[in-house]
Each structure stands twice: as C-alpha cells, then as structure tokens.
Amino acid sequence: MATLSAQRKHKVTVVGSGNWGTTMAKLVAENVKEKPTLFEETVQMWVYEEDVTFSKDSKHYSGSDKPEKLSQLINQVHENIKYLPNITLPSNVVANPDLPSSCKDSTILIFVLPHQFIARSCSQLAGKILPYARAICCTKGVDVGEKGIRLMSETIGMTLNIYCGALSGANIASEIAQEKYSETTVAYDPPPMDSRNPTPSGSPNASQVDLINPSKPNPGPRSAHLTPLPAEYPPLSHENVRKLFHRPYFHVHMVSDVAGVSLGGALKNIIALAAGFVDGLGWGDNAKAAVMRVGILEMVKFGKAFFGESARTSTFTEESCGVADVVTSCMGGRNFRCAKMAIQRGKTIYEIEQTELNGQKLQGTSTAYEVNEFLKSQGMEDDFPLFTAVYNILEGNNKPEDIPNLIEKKH
Amino acid sequence: MATLSAQRKHKVTVVGSGNWGTTMAKLVAENVKEKPTLFEETVQMWVYEEDVTFSKDSKHYSGSDKPEKLSQLINQVHENIKYLPNITLPSNVVANPDLPSSCKDSTILIFVLPHQFIARSCSQLAGKILPYARAICCTKGVDVGEKGIRLMSETIGMTLNIYCGALSGANIASEIAQEKYSETTVAYDPPPMDSRNPTPSGSPNASQVDLINPSKPNPGPRSAHLTPLPAEYPPLSHENVRKLFHRPYFHVHMVSDVAGVSLGGALKNIIALAAGFVDGLGWGDNAKAAVMRVGILEMVKFGKAFFGESARTSTFTEESCGVADVVTSCMGGRNFRCAKMAIQRGKTIYEIEQTELNGQKLQGTSTAYEVNEFLKSQGMEDDFPLFTAVYNILEGNNKPEDIPNLIEKKH
C-alpha cells in the first residue's frame, strides 16, 4: 500500500572536526535528535586522527600524560579537547577517523574542512558515497586565479558528482559553541530533476572541468549528471534543510544563491583589511563604516560581473553571509586587527602576521592577491577600486591615506 | 543676446551653528570658494546668539574673562569656540545672529538645527525668504506619533512653502571637522516644474496639512505650490547640489529618496539600543551583527509600509544614511553605549542617561516610544519584532535575553 510518509531517514556526516566542524556537529546533532522522523539519530563526524593529551586543567585530566587518539577521546568524554575544549558534545555525535567509513550511507555531507584539505578529501571520497547524497559546504573562501573563480561548493560537487550548497554567515565558532545568539545563511538550490527518469550518471572530474571564466557561461549545477534523491527519503526542501541547522541560538535564513553566499565569505576578508588600514590611521568610525559600505558594493559588483544574475544583490546587502559577516570581520576579526596593527606600528602586515599569529596565515592577503590577479587578467582592476587599493597597499604601491582618493570616482 | 551661462549665482545660508552646523558651514564654504561660477563666495551662518568666554587653553585667550557675543567672536577669530573649538573656519563663513537677515536672498538654505528648534525657526522665516529658495535638512530624526510620521524636511518644506531635501550619513561631526574621511547621502528630488509658466504660489501651512498617515497617500512635494527657480540661476541638478557638499574627505552620493534618507537617521537609534543590549549581555560580535542586520531589514519594511515605493530598499541597504550609519551608531554611538552600560550594570537606561550624559537625552529611547505608539495605532507591532522588542525592554516587559526568540519568527 502506498504511503505518503517517507520510509527512510537522512543520515548526516560532518566532514571535519576543527573548531568550526565540531561546533557544526554539535548543533546538527541537537537538531537530528529533535526531528526523529526526518533524520537518523547518529551524526558521524570525520576526525583527522592525531594523538592528544589532556591539559592539566581539563576536568577530564586523570593524572596521566599518555597520548591518546583524538577520535577515541571524543567518543569517550564527548568533548573535542583539542579544538573545542570545555564544550560538551551531544552523545549522538560519533567521531570516526576513517573518511569513507564516516560518510558511508549518508545522504547529507556537511563539509567543514580547512580550505586546503577540501580537494584531497573529496578525491578520497569519490565513488565511495551514495550517488544521491547532497552536500553543504561550510568552509569559507573560493579558489581564485588568473583563469577564473571556483567556489568550494563547486570543487566538492564536481569531484563527488553530487549537488553541493553553502553555509556562511557572521559566525565566530566559539560564540556559537557557547550557544550565544547568531545568524547564518544557507544557500541550497539543486536543479530540478525527474526522479522517475533519472539520467545516466556521468562522472565529471574537477580537474577536467573548466574553472568559471567570464568568457564562458557559468556551468552551474548540471542536472544531467546528478542522481535524484530516491522518493523514500523526505525531500531536501528549504524547510527540511533549515531544520537541520536552525537552533534557537542559531537562526538560519535559506536562499538559493550559492555563488553569492560563497563569495561573501571570501571577499569580506579584503574589506576587513581595508577597514583595518583606515582604523590604523586613527580616522574613526565614519571612515571605517564608509570602507565597509563601499566594500559591500564591490562584492555586489563582483558577483554580478562574474556570476551574472545568479549572484543576487540582496545576498550581499541583506543576508548574514554578506553585510553581517562584513560587520563582524571589521569589528574584531584577525584580518582587521593585523591590518590595523601594521599601520599603527609602521610595519608590513607580513611582519605582524609573523609576530602575532603563531605561524598561522591571514586569509585576507592571499585573497586580495588572487582577486587582483584575476581582475588584472580581465582588465577590470579600475572597476573595483577598493579591492585594487588593498592589493596596492599590500604591495607598497599605495598608502592607506590614498584610499578616499582612489575610491572617489567610482562610489 | 541670449547666453547659455547662468547670470546669477546661488547664495547659501547654513541655518544653525552647533557642532554639526558649524562643520557643515566649513565644508560648504570651502566648496563655494572653489566654484565661483555657481555660488556666491560668502556663506551666511545663522548663530543663536549667546555670551561666551574663551577657555584659558584657547589659542585666542587674551587674559580677559569678559563675555563676548558668539557671532562676533566667530567673525573675529574664525572659530566657533563654544561648539567646534580648535577648528579654523574659512573666512567666507559669516556668522549672523539675525535669522531672517541671514537667509535674505539665499537660494539654498541648509538646515542644521536641533530637532526641537526646526518648527519654530521655520515659522520665523515664513514669508521672509525667496519664494524659489530650496532647502536641505541635515538634522536627523522624524516626528512620529500616533497620528503618523512627518519628516523634518516636510516640516521645513510645508512651513516655508519650498522644496526641501535631506542629508544624512555615517557622520560624526567632529571627525568631519578634522577632515577625516567620511561619506554621506543627499536626497534631492524636487518635482518637475515648468519655469516658463509658474503656477500661482499657494501657502500651505504645516499645521493645516495632515501628518502622513498610512490610510492616506503620502502627499509628497506638491509642485502646484512650488515656485520654480528662475532660469538665470544655474540649475539645482544632482550634479550641482553634489558640488555644494562633496569634498575630498566628504564623499557625497546623491539619491532621490528623501523619505528613506530621513527614516534611516531616526530608526538607526532604535537599532543601536538593541545592539547595546545584546553587547551588554556579553553575547559577542555575531549577535551584534545579527541585530544590526535584522534592524536594517525592519527599516526597509517600515519605509515600504508607510512611504510606499518612494522609500527604496537600496537607500537602507546600500547608502551611507542606511547601513553605514547603523554600523557607526552600533560601534560607539551614545545610544549603543548607554544601552550596553545599562545591561552591564543592571540599571535602567534612564539611570545611565542621568549619570552619564550631563543632562542630555538619548534620541533612541524617545524614537523607540514614538515608533511603538505609531505601530500600535496601526496594529503592526508584530511586523516589527525588533523595534517592538526594544520598546518592551525599555518598558520592562521583556528582557534583552528574549531578543532572539522575539525576532525568530519574522526574520
């Protein structure tokens, strides 16, 4: 007898277990437990295995300094003592050090890996996941080069031959882990598919597919290569995807603009550098707000120029992944702070990076260079005077004091 | 012989000489000097006369503590020692304590008075200005009550029977006086008029004209009552109005949306209170950015609900008078700081106001009450959950901790 209710439930894996990955696993696990008709209770979390020891002030410290496996510890004490200490995880988060095993039979893969590990992890997963799985990329950033722009979600989607959306917002992980109120934007918009007549699944490979190039139309998600979700599963509508992420302390707004959501999380770092430069000059809040506003409008223009109508103005001006993430990044983010310090101390930002960041690298500087290389290749540097000014300040061709003059004509 | 060049020049008066008024007089005077074909060189500045004495650390202090007239001192030392000390004014700023005399023969009146003096000053000027003068209101705020909303520019325009635009932005006066970079938005959009066939000038009076009421269409500028600018003057196009205000350190963006520009400067103070409340709870930058984003969207909705299509979304989301002014106000403005302090110290905002503001009043609290009274009268409190939450927190009906829950359904 036919039944209207779904017979299978979605199984969820979080691919990644750093600060942000563990935070996502925590909130997703809270949600799946509350929605047992939609989701299986266990949330797998892939852990890049390493040896860890408890610090002496951990409540779990037993006097032994013997190293233990991170994944085993997480499953024992329900805490990621290395990357999210002092936050208890729901017991339905299960750490798994084996990547293919952690994703086996999962219909929803949530990618929360550092930028540089995305491609490699996807290659290891290719062919070992459900063909009809769906992914959401929570890693910020895009791959930009002279040849074009590729979104993280595109790398994931093309390598695994599945649809991949994106989550981004004004989301400082530690605040969300503590259940302090925040918002986010989730872009999810798989192409329409006829589940009764699935087309044969081709197997495009990221390395064979051109980067997005303004001279060619954006390939976008290609429904011909996607396998429809079987009808026994609850549909992955905006409503159901929202249920996976929305918490009383983490408000989710669903949109369809994957390009805009992804670009916002990358380009905001260039704006944060600019805001840091003018703040370092002691120019005050008017100037900082002006740079933020001009930066948001350059984001809008960038989206339209290289992703056409699929990048919506409102994604940048109205969503958490746009205006709110710019605000947060320019209030106290790492790029803002280092840029400000560089100007105040009369040093280069690279000197500040070395002394202040414990070997970590600023995302803003590499994004500013990559975006500039791309804009140059398109002959469009002058159309993005703030992005171009940041590059030229980093290169020593301009001074922060030049910013008002450099952006005067265009904004 | 007919000539294409204008035979007369615009004469400019700045009505007001406080911190912001004196700053506007300074920058406008710098501009008119550089554009002698458009503007007369002298800029009149109306000064509310009072007795002042030099402070002992002023460079002008001569050992005498004898009080002198503020207007005379400004014209002697080219400095407003009381309201904008240590900033030298261009010598073409001429202080004038007589209101009608200061505006005589001026084609451009720039109003920069405290909110509560606007109506009275306009009454004193009625009938004593050029019938074809044009005004720009730089005072932030709107008059809101149970009966409706009236913009400052409407009060000015209706009382004087002239067209009045508006200037607003992320504009902390002291930073602009020091020529630190900032941006602003100028809304200027007089109705089309046929200067060859001027219609007889009626004389509507502010007290006879209804407040804007959602049940009636917005009266807007009524061309039938306006006197066209004589053709001997350079046209007051967006380009020429921009030339009056734009400086290398003060970037002007021209728009046509007077309602949006005016509402932004008023409603941002409610948002700043909300941002202060959540920041006072120690909720961090995610929460603060979320409240700002939600607030901007309530501004957009408010504009659309009560001013229709004339209030454009982009005025709030893309212009200095919208998003940038919200950012500045939520970074360090007075409403933000007092709201934050109230939560941190467990006091009411009125107690903080008394101890911290030297007898000055917060604009945000009165705006929050006025807007709530109006929304209540329209049965629309629930459509603006953040504005309503701020009112209810001020009233003690809600706690700041309730904000996420209160806004969850609508945003």
Automatic annotation (TrEMBL), chains A, B:
Instruction: Identify this protein by name.
Output: Glycerol-3-phosphate dehydrogenase [NAD(+)]
Entry similarity comment: Belongs to the NAD-dependent glycerol-3-phosphate dehydrogenase family.
Q: Which residues does the entry assign to the active site, renumbered to this chain?
A: 268 (proton acceptor)
> Gene Ontology cellular component?
cytosol; nucleus
Which BP terms in the Gene Ontology apply to this protein?
Answer: carbohydrate metabolic process; glycerol-3-phosphate catabolic process
Domain Glycerol-3-phosphate dehydrogenase NAD-dependent C-terminal: start-end pairs: 257-403
Protein residues bound to substrate:
140, 334-335
Which EC number applies?
Answer: 1.1.1.8
| Residues noted as binding NAD(+) in the record, renumbered to the chain | 16-21, 117, 173, 334, 361, 363
* Natural source organism: Neocucurbitaria cava
Matching PANTHER family: GLYCEROL-3-PHOSPHATE DEHYDROGENASE (PTHR11728), GLYCEROL-3-PHOSPHATE DEHYDROGENASE [NAD(+)]-RELATED (PTHR11728:SF8)
